[in-house]
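Hi V.,

You were right to ask for the full record rather than a summary. Here it is.
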Amino acid sequence: MELIGFDPGGRSAFGWAVLAVDDGGHVLGLRSGIESSAPDAIDQVQATLNAAPGGVGIDAPLFWVDKGDRAVDAHIRRRVLSSGGSSGTVSAINSLQGACVAQGIICARMARLMWPSALITEAHPKALLRVWPAAGEFVRQWIPASVATHERDAALAAYAAWQGVCANPAWSDLMGMDPMPFFPAGSRVSYWFPT
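Predicted structure:
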């Protein structure tokens, strides 16, 4: 199975990754790169895939709420703080850069159209590294130190999609935390994160 990860950013800052895993839960390989937009990153991924992906992880806010901070962000922020991290690791949507928000939504919409059966999940690689030791081990084992942060975060987004597709019992879909979410990409998404 192949899983895709995206880390939306601006010019020369849009990371993509394709993670290949077997049925036994072993990583077979990882391919990644940097592009400048959602269409370019999706084109690169499509050229790299062997089959339709099982899941897509995107490091961007894929749903919004009518008022205030998202409950999932507050929850993950508390988890990061309790592990000794900084509250700035989990930003409010209104404080994020435009490329992350806009390109993340475009990416989710294009992914849904291209791979309609794939699970699409929001991901938060930096928070994941802070609260889930296995994510750090994944990075140490599969991502060379020379790789750009955008590629690393895309690989971790693919890792989060993998956990969602496998329904890892130590993870859960946090989407139920926010009542009445709005999905600007036009379809429902998940938010798989360690419990």
